[in-house]
Each structure stands twice: as structure tokens, then as C-alpha cells.
From TrEMBL:
Membrane topology value: Multi-pass membrane protein
CDD domains membership: MFS_MFSD5_like
Identification of the protein by name: Molybdate-anion transporter
Claim: Cell membrane is one of the keywords in the record: yes
Species for this entry: Urochloa decumbens
Amino acid sequence: MEVFYYVVFGALSAIVAGLELGKSGKDRVATTSAFNSFKNNYVLVYSLMMSGDWLQGPYVYFLYSQYGFDKGDIGRLFIAGFGSSMLFGTIVGSLADKQGRKRACITYCITYILSCITKHSPQYKVLMIGRILGGIATSLLFSAFESWLVAEHNKRGFDPQWLSITFSKAIFLGNGLIAIVSGLFANLLAENLGFGPVAPFDAAACFLAIGMAIIMSSWSENYGDPSDSKDLMAQFKVAAKAIASDEKIALLGAIQSLFEGSMYTFVFLWTPALSPNEEDIPHGFIFATFMLSSMLGSSIASRLLARKLKVEGYMQIVFSISAVTLVLPVVTNFLVPPSSVKGGTISFGGCLQLLGFCTFEACVGIFWPSIMKMRSQYIPEEARSTIMNFFRIPLNLFVCVVLYNVNAFPITVMFGMCSIFLFMAAILQRRLMVVSDLHKSSTTQEMIGEDEPLNP
């Protein structure tokens, strides 16, 4: 492995360690032992759930290519996953609100374990079924767990501001440290120990089973609106009405779709972008480096949230920076001549892109706890999972369209599209801040008016 990878990984590790060790009193919030116990239980479960997801990340594309499928075939498999998430997401989200978030979390574990098992088959139809199951699981992962946490946090009477602590810690560990270890562990299983690219999927199934056992034994059930009179269609109507009647919720959904759509497209694009001539790159180690960058971002986010900086303000900068990083492959393609050697080491242009991708992943690390904070503020509790999965419809549609046309456009065009969408997210974030400030101002004026005595 080239020294370059170690240098990038080591530099990021030093920065993250410095940020964590350098935290001052302003970066920490005093809490209770009951809350700490609750937080630690959730973070443990979330970390196990994310390890089940992250272990698969570095080798999904590579496994399909090893089975002999080309970029178009692999693109269709990815489309199946995002398409199933789009089609079934709102249904499973409504069922989570109606039938219980704990049950939905258990369903996630079972569905994803089944998806992992299908990776043993080189049959395209079996792999397609696995992608469909994985898409359903993804919808649950990014809605049911957060919905359960917010409802349980409020039910237990904890300070609403403490939600940011749990969000930041969960992302720091689940999307940071656990993701790094998962990438390295996947690399160890698949390459160093020679078990092949299917081994990380078996390990993922084991971690999901452990997490499911903890959920079943220690979590209580909570619901959105358990009213017997509300069926799935009624849940959809409640969610659609909330989005249509509140500009803040609609803007938040658009922002999330634009950013996550670009992020999931990046997941598909980074491997061919860094190895356009089949360069020999350490997939697991690079993935771990990306996750270390995400960990850096979540560490920055925890400081910003602890100091109660306005999320709507600093996220405009984050989206703008992320847009610049994804336009880098377009720039390097014109300025840096591509390597003509097949199967060699990573090129100079690839090194520049890798640094840009690490910056993008740092933005992703800031995004997750920040968007969770905004969702906890703006989304009503009674249909939280349903609304969150409504948000995923446009992002999954966007990714499906991009992947369907993966052979029609060069990679640089797709990166350029993602960059444009991220700039749009920055603009909408600005609008969200303006609307939020206007709403707070009008609410304050109404409260002042109610407190003033009537004139005699």
C-alpha cells in the first residue's frame, strides 16, 4: 500500500484526536445519569446497526464486478435498492408509526440479514432480491431508529437540548469510529485473510443479530399515532398535509433529498473515479479513510451544537463546501492528464480527488447530526417516520435516474450534477433560515400581545 494512504489517514487521525482531546467546558453539557444510561444504550444499538451497514459498503460494487457484471448491470442492481426504498419506504414508515418503532427496528435487522445472505449467490435474480430487501432495510434504518429515539427521549422527560448530544455521539461512533473499524475489518476479511468479498456481508449479519437481541431485551415500544381509526392512507394524508402546510418541513425535505441524493450517487461513483484505468486501490482502507473524515465532521458538529450555534446558518457553508469538493473530479479531468497505464497505482489526479472526497465526507459527518437536530425541531411527532420516508422518495428517484443513465454520461457529468444539487441545497438552507426566523419572530410577537393587559 502506498505511503500516500497512510499519510492521509494519519493526518486525519491526528486532527480528530486533537479536536476530541481539546474540548473545553463550552463543548460539554451537564446531564443526568439516567440520560447517560439511555444515551449509551441507544448509541450501542445504533453502532451495531451501522456496523451491519458499513461492513457491506466497501465491497458491494467490487463483489458484483467479481461476479462478472458490468457497470450497467451493477447500476441496475443499485437502482433496485433505491427503487424499493422509494416504493416501500413510506409504507414501512407508516407501519412504524402505527405498529411501533421497536418492531420496525427489529424488522430492519431481519430484512438486512436476509439481504446479506443473498450475496453468496452469483445469480443476478437472487442479487436483485437482496438489493430490494436492502432498500427496505435502508428506509427503516434512517427513519425508525431516529423516530424511536425522539419519542422515547421526550416520553422520559429529558431536556430537549440533550437530543443533540445523543445525535452527535451516535454519528461520531456509528458513522465515524464504527465505520472506520468496519472498513478495516472488511479489508482484513476480504483481502488480508483471503476470505473474499462476500465475507464482510457474513460479518454484517452477525452484528445485526447481536443488535436485534439487545433491542428485543432492553427497548420499550413507542408509537406515532396508535389511534385505531388511522389506517395507512390516513397516515399518508397526515404526513402530506404537514409537508404541504409548513414551508419549513417542505424545505427541510428538499434539502435532505438534494444532499443525500448526491451522497448516495457518490457512493456509487467513488470506486470508478479513483480507478478509471483499473488501478489497484485498497477499497477497504480508502473506505475507512472516508469514515475517519466523517468522524472529523461529526466532531466539529458536536462542538457547533454544544455551543448552540444556529444550525440553519452554518449548514449553508457546509453545503457550499461539499458542492466544491464534488466538482473537483471535473476540474482534475481537464487539468491533470489521465494515466494510460492499466492496473497501476493511484494517479496524481486520483490523489487530488481522494483529498476532495475526504473533505466531502467531513461535510457528511457534519450533516447527519445537524439534519437530525432540524428534523427534531420541525417534524411533528404523530407521523415522524412517515414524513421522514416521504423525504426519501425524491432522493431515491434522483439516484435511480442517475444510475439508470450511468452508461450514458461520463463520470465527470454525474459529479457536476451532484455539485449543482449541493449548491441548490445551500440556497434552500438559506431560505429555511429566513422562514424559521420569521416564524420565531411572529410567535414572539403573539406571545407579547397575549401578555399585554387590555386598555381600559
